[in-house]
Amino acid sequence: MDSLRAVCSANNACSFITGGNLSRSKLSSNNIYYTSCCDSKASQYKRKTQIEYNVLSFKQSRLNNDYRWIEGKKHVGKAISRQDLDSEAEDSNAKTLLISINKFVVAFFMFCNPYSVIGRTFSTVSASLLVVEKLSDISLLFFIGVLQAMVPLLFMDIYVNGVNQLSDLEIDKINKPYLPLASGQISFTTGAIIVASSLILSFGLAWTIGSWPLIWNVVSCFLLWTAYSINGPLLRWKRHPLLAAICVWATWAVVFPITFFAHMQTFVLKRATIFPRSLVFVIVFMSFYSLGIALFKDIPDIDGDQAYGIQSFAARFGQKRVFWFCVSLFEMAFGIALMAGLTSSSLLVKIVTGLGHAVLAWILWYQAKSVDLTSKASIGSFFMLIWKLLYVAYFLMPLIR
């Protein structure tokens, strides 16, 4: 039975492979042959099937390995992606911080009213040069003395300009909405902290240096500009055009040149107190020029001043009248400087100061004729020109002796 089943199995297998064309009659005579043949082919089929199975198993194994490798790479990719995202987030935060710092620096720069700070700085240098009698006077001690005058007054400048903006917040929203406080770039609290800190630093540095002319300088500026800006009994001088003009004139024509000169003359160089011709000239020149600045600065602010009851000369007499009156004051200042230069004993000084102030006077007059008084931008541009011309004049003043 076992042999019969074996033969049958062999025949079936062989029949499957050969397509079933073998006859039963040949089975008896060729039993051994066909059995052997079928056994051989069955073995080959079995081996082929086994090989194909092994190949499929190998491919499946490779596929599983590849899948596991890809999964691993996916996890690594996810980890790298998170690291990149964290790095990008840190870079973004750093850029945001830098942008915020940059915006604050720009806003703080505008808060300090840069044109007046630059003007006061040139005033310091110009008045300090009046003490120079010979080239040896310009020494390390001289530069230290100039620096001593600059630093406390820099903080006083920040206080003066800051307290004015704090007091004029609502007015500036009409007249100068681009200012840091009016535009909201700097909060009222931050502005108050800056102002208070600057005042303390100004007094502290002046007292530490120990120069009485500098101490009188910061005290005078504090009193004058606090009275000018703050709203209180007998204060808020800017509401009264005459008091406002006196405040500007006293600061730029009297306090600055006298105290800076006295600081360098008596405290730095240890010389006797004198009142030279050159200092008198600076006081006279700045009396006209500072008065012109005091009146001119209210011309573009007429709308806000009228809304809040500030009767400036521009609001009272009209922009056009005040404008040309201010231009006349500036031209008179340059005329005085030209005449003072021509009286100098040095031919070179006569040429430089005479020609220099004549050119400044011509530039001012030429530009004044093209100002559009209905445009705040045009008025503001001319106001900046006034300061730039003063910067140049400050370098010509020490030449006149």
Describe this structure in words.
The protein is an all-alpha fold and 401 residues long. Among the domains are: 100-236, Tetracycline Repressor, domain 2 (Orthogonal Bundle); 275-401. Helices cover 81% and strands 0% of the residues. It has 16 helices and no strands. Helix 9 packs antiparallel against helix 10 (241-268). It is globular, with a radius of gyration of 47 Å. The relative contact order is 0.07. Mean pLDDT is 80; it is low at 1-43, 51-63 and 65-78. This is Glycinol 4-dimethylallyltransferase-like. The chain crosses the membrane at residues 97-118, 138-160, 181-207, 213-230, 242-262, 274-296, 322-341, 347-365, 377-397. Pfam families: UbiA.
Helix content: over 70%
The gyration radius over C-alpha positions equals 47 Å
Discrete helix count: 16
CATH architecture of the domain at 100-236: Orthogonal Bundle
Gross morphology is globular
CATH topology of the domain at 100-236: Tetracycline Repressor, domain 2
Structural class: mainly alpha
CATH class of the domain at 100-236: Mainly Alpha
| Series of secondary-structure elements, N-terminal to C-terminal | HHHHHHHHHHHHHHHH
Roughly what is the average pLDDT, rounded to an integer? 80
Low-confidence stretches: 1-43, 51-63, 65-78
Strand content: under 5%
What characterizes the major β-sheet?
none
What's the total number of strands?
Answer: 0
Distance between the amino and carboxyl termini: 145 Å
Pfam family, one: UbiA
GO molecular function: prenyltransferase activity
Membrane topology: Multi-pass membrane protein
Family: Belongs to the UbiA prenyltransferase family.
